[in-house]
Amino acid sequence: MTFENLNIILPIREALAKQGYLNPTPIQEKAIPFILEGNDVFGCAQTGTGKTAAFALPILQLFHTKQLTKKTQGIKALILAPTRELAIQIGESFDDYGKNINIKHTVIFGGVSQGNQTRALQQGVDILIATPGRLLDLMNQGFVKLHTIEFFVLDEVDRMLDMGFVRDIQKIITKLPVKRQTVFFSATVPPEIKKLANGLLTNPVSVQVTAVSAPAEMVKQSMYFVEKQDKKDLLKFVLEKENINHALVFMRTKHGANKLVKDLVKFGISAEAIHGNKSQSARQKALEGFKNRTIKLLIATDIASRGIDVDKLTHVINYELPEVAETYIHRIGRTGRAGEGGAAISFCATEEKAYWKDILKLVGTAVVIETPPKFNNVRTAEDNAPERKRQFGNSGGSGSNNRRFSNKRRF
Ligand code: AMP
To answer: In a 3-state reduction of DSSP, which class is residue 78?
Structure first.
């Protein structure tokens, strides 16, 4: 299968060739023809499958062939994404794929001043990529009007709901024209996602590239059972044993992420943290350093990590297990992207065994249990201390709320 077989027009194919894309990925193969035909699409695909291009390419093409410009003025396509990182990355994908197509797009997200964003909007855009909070804010201020939208994409909807955006999304939807084409992507499909999709999509075509909640097949998963106080030594051991020079390391909390960076720097290992307490510019800087490999380890909380797209990321390390089992799947989906292999190595402390049981139920038995060496660290008061109180939805989540939510949405 080629992009030409999918009837993708030459200017886009030329841009894709520059990106080194030779063939469509399965989600692109399945979704693009339906979107080009004007259908609503319900896509179940995790990150790393090429889902961004699955909606971006047909949108660009529909613009180019003038099927999306019935009204002359105003925003024609709206793409909602849960995090600023993902929104920025979608914007970059439109830059890459749309090089030879004359349309204007802009990205709006919170956490930065709105001046540049409102200026871009005032100059007129065809495609708007937005996080829900900032979009609503700018709508309320009158900078964004959605009545000209002809194409609407909701990306990573499960994550948007996890982050508590459901009301914002509902408010945004009421401002959209009823007659529009809608594409809806989610990595997991718990009942509340089905319900939201049913209300939003008209006669949708369902496309799916993996079983619901299946982890990326190309990812080799392994697990070390280890005491909490031994985790940093284990990390050093694993980096050496596996000869890892570049890895994304997951933590549950911002505090934990900062502390780990300090410990790693003491070991002489270059690491930076990326989480919601860091400024947008600090996060971008850390991400750039990681992408250009001046930083060996990027220590991330779950929400900050969404949308991080690093080409050829070979290793993901779950230094702390997530409380919500589906998050494990999102995490390990950062590697093994677009058909390349990858490894996910997890550390499970005694107090995390309940999370591990939940994860195993989702991923089955495809995890190799590794034996750690003996370490002689003494458990400190801090290791015994309960974790700091965290805001629900801000750091990838902890706290009883999230736990209850996770149990409720198990399927
Ligand atoms: P996504 O799932 O959209 O985050 O994409 C995951 C990764 O796959 C990104 O690094 C894309 O640049 C890459 N990608 C998307 N489509 C293709 C393709 N057809 N061939 C090769 N790489 C692709």
So the answer is: strand
For position 159, what pLDDT does the model report? Answer: 85
What's the gap in Å between 338 CA and the centre of ligand 1? 5
* More confident site: 158 or 337: 158
Query: What's phi and psi for 284, nearest 5 deg?
Result: -65, -40
Residues 166 and 272 reside in one and the same domain: no
Report the CATH number at residue 285.
3.40.50.300
Domain termination residue (choose one: 174, 208, 242): 208
How many angstroms separate the alpha carbon of residue 121 from the centre of ligand 1? 28
The ligand 1 site (C-beta within 6 Å) comprises 21, 24-25, 28, 47-53, 309, 311, 337-338
pLDDT digits (tens, 9 = 90+) for 220-271: 899 999 999 999 999 999 999 999 999 999 998 888 899 999 999 998 999 9
Residues 310 and 395 in one domain: yes
Q: Which of 394, 386, 401 is nearest to 275 (CA)?
A: 394
| DSSP 8-state class, residue 213 | T
Tally of structural domains, the chain: 2
Distance 181 CA to ligand 1 centre (A): 23
Give the domain-ending residue among 175, 208, 241: 208
Closest ligand 1 atom number to CA of residue 311: 10
What is the residue range of 359's domain? 219-405
Q: Are residues 253 and 309 in the same domain?
A: yes
Q: What is the pLDDT of residues 318-371, one digit of tens each?
A: 999 998 787 888 888 888 765 567 899 999 999 999 999 988 888 876 788 999
CA of 308 to the centre of ligand 1 (A): 12
Whole-number percent of the chain with pLDDT over 70:
88
Same domain for 261 and 390:
yes
The Å distance, Cα 24 to ligand 1 centre, comes to: 9
CA dist., res. 141 & res. 56, Å (int): 28
Q: Atom 10 of ligand 1 has which residue's CA nearest to it?
A: 311
Q: Per residue in 5-33, pLDDT tens? A: 999 999 999 999 988 888 898 899 999 99
Atom 19, ligand 1: residue with shortest CA distance:
24
Query: Where does 20-97 have alpha helices with state H?
Result: 26-36, 51-64, 84-97
* CA of 309, closest atom in ligand 1: 10
Sheet holding 315-318, edge to edge: 271-274, 297-301, 247-251, 315-318, 342-348, 219-225, 367-370
